[in-house]
Structure formats: structure tokens, C-alpha cells
Amino acid sequence: MLRHLKKKFKLKKINNNAAEKEDYESLNQKLKLIKLQAQIDNHTEGQKVTATINDVAEAVERLTGIPVSQMGSSDIERLKEMILVSKVKLLVKMKLLKLFHALFTP
Question: What is the four-CA torsion angle of 24, 29, 30, 34, rounded to 10 degrees?
Fold first, then answer.
């Protein structure tokens, strides 16, 4: 009961601060975080958690700043190709370094 009252007080405090600053986007984000934290607190180990494609896209956007949800399939394919090319280039560089190391070390 006390925990519930603390959360309720915290929500009112956040609402008041946001209203004073007229920062409603920040308010929505904070409220969303509080709701998610409540879900985490009520979660038990037996429950299965699933993430949707939108959940993953939002997480990538938050962490990288890349607007994944606004990207089309052609953009995503191009990005995958760029990553693949980068990996191949890295592997080639590593093999060359190993070869040079083998050639020039006694």
C-alpha cells in the first residue's frame, strides 16, 4: 500500500513539474518508463516476455539514433549489405595481418 502511494505521489510530482515547464513530451516518456517499471516489478520468472518488431525498432532508435521505424525494406537491405561488406573487409585485413606477421617474424 505504501509503495502504491509513493508511486502515485511520484506521478503527481512529475505531472506538476512537466506542466510548469510545458514539457509534455518528456512527461510522456517518464510516464511510459514508470509504467514499464511497474510491469517489470510485477513480472514473475514463469511469464514469457516477447518483444515486437516495434519494440526492437524503438530500442535501436534510442541507442543508436538511427530512425529504424522510418526505414523502408530497401534501406534495411542496403544497410545489411554495407555491414556484410564491412565484415568481409575486416576478415581480409585480419588475414593479411596474419600473413605479414608470419612472413616477417623470425
Answer: 140
Q: Which residues contact 15 (CB under 8 A, 6 or more apart)?
A: 27
Over residues 22-51, the mean pLDDT reads 75
pTM of the model: 0.34
DSSP string, 41-81: HH--TTS-----HHHHHHHHHHHH---GGG--HHHHHHHHH
Phi, psi of 43 (to 5 degrees): -75, 140
> Is the separation of the CB atoms in 38 and 7 below 8 Å?
yes
Query: What type of residue sits at position 69?
Result: S
